[in-house]
Write a structure and sequence with these properties.
The chain is of the alpha+beta class. It is 29% helix and 18% strand. The chain has nine helices and ten strands. Strands 1, 8, 9 and 10 form a four-stranded antiparallel β-sheet that branches. Helix 4 (127-149) crosses helix 6 (179-190), helix 4 (127-149) packs antiparallel against helix 8 and helix 7 (199-216) crosses helix 8.
Length: 370
């Protein structure tokens, strides 16, 4: 059997690498890369945003229920859901998108956005709680805007920017992402803010807005030229959201620079406002957080050991050069050797398939000690 060492190609977490040949060194045909959300079964209890996760009941016990009844929603939200054909599926897509992106952004850190412990986290005021609120609202905003432009929602369609006719957009295949409808609907769906005298409520509302703002900042105008011989005699433009990976990266940067806050009453406005704690010895409070800052109130636990907030880091795969020292929390790591089969010497054949040989390489895997 041929033994070859090749450079690996990285793929986003939650996606499968290209199909590989696994039987013998002889050539065989493999299909083109196919990506799927194989890490999820669709039955997970997803609660990235309170009230918007999927219900805990197994799929078979709720087979007779309507899609909106399978979601963990308030009575008012279920009423809105029933009035919006296509919304239930969009909410489920948003929950999965939020989870996968969160796990990708924290794949090398002690807290890796595991579903285990998420309910406990959402009851606290950690940096991780702030990220969950922002990521969830961003995923909802992004997914709903895309669902409108994809024709999956009956009450909304393409972006209705001035000068862009929906029929013309569909004709050219350039239907704009309807962020305007998405943000308006989401504001109504989530309902009014909780009492302004509650510090936690103010922080949650602030972080939710940070997520929506992150999606808005990625909205761009894309144009397509039409004319004889490639000339730009006619130009069609539409609104398009940035890939959600860019939004996730932006929110991760905000997590890294999150601001710890306390509260103070604005006597002029008669409401509670967020402020950074006063410096030691200073009689005045610190500055107010900026609109794009994630805010938190409590220092996070270490996440090294199992707790009600996370499963800990024991058994986690790490990089010896980059992450084992931090991820394993000083407990050390185990080294294991394994043989990995992959496709190599691939050639594209006419038409539309790829012939590959099977190669094997030895790979060292490092996992944190218990």
């Amino acid at each position: 059997m041929e033994r070859t060492v090749v450079a690996k190609t990285g793929y986003p977490e939650g996606r499968d690498p290209p199909a590989t040949a696994v039987a013998g060194p002889e050539s065989r045909t493999v299909q083109a890369p196919s990506f799927a959300l194989s890490s999820l079964t669709g039955r997970e209890v997803l609660t990235p945003f309170p009230g918007l996760g999927t219900a805990a009941a197994p799929a078979q016990s709720g087979a007779h229920l309507k899609p909106c009844d399978l979601l963990k929603l308030s009575r008012r939200q279920k009423q809105l859901c029933r009035r919006e054909p296509g919304l239930a599926e969009t909410l489920q897509d948003a929950a999965h998108l939020s989870l996968l992106e969160c796990q990708f952004q924290f794949r090398h850190e002690r807290w890796n956005c595991s579903l285990e412990g998420r309910t406990g986290l959402l009851k606290r005021g950690f940096k991780e709680t702030a990220f969950l609120y922002a990521m969830s609202s961003a995923a909802l905003t992004h997914t709903l805007a895309r669902a409108c432009s994809a024709g999956r929602m009956e009450r909304c369609t393409c972006d209705d920017s001035p000068g862009l006719e929906s029929r013309q957009a569909w004709q050219w295949g350039v239907c704009g992402d309807n962020l305007k409808y998405s943000t308006k609907f989401l504001s109504n769906f989530l309902g009014p803010k909780r009492g302004s005298k509650d510090l936690r409520a103010r922080a949650d509302a602030h972080n939710t807005h940070v997520g929506i703002k992150a999606v808005k900042s990625g909205l761009r105008t894309t144009c397509k030229c039409h004319g004889v011989s490639g000339s730009c005699a006619v130009r069609t433009c539409w609104k398009q959201l940035a890939p959600f990976r860019e939004t996730g990266q932006a929110l991760k940067l905000r997590y890294d620079s999150a601001v710890k806050v306390s509260s103070a009453t604005n006597e002029a406005l008669g409401r509670l406002e967020l402020w950074a704690p006063a410096r030691p010895g200073s009689p005045t409070k610190g500055p107010a957080p900026r609109p794009g800052d994630l805010v938190y109130m409590e220092d996070s636990p270490s996440f090294c050991r199992p707790s009600k907030y996370s499963p800990g880091t024991a058994g986690r795969v790490c990089s010896r050069e980059a992450s084992c020292s931090s991820l394993c929390c000083g407990r050390g790591y185990d080294t294991q050797s394994r043989l990995v089969a992959f496709s190599c010497h691939c050639q594209v054949q006419w038409c539309c398939y790829v012939e590959c040989q099977q190669c094997v390489q030895e790979e060292l895997m490092y996992t944190c000690k218990h």
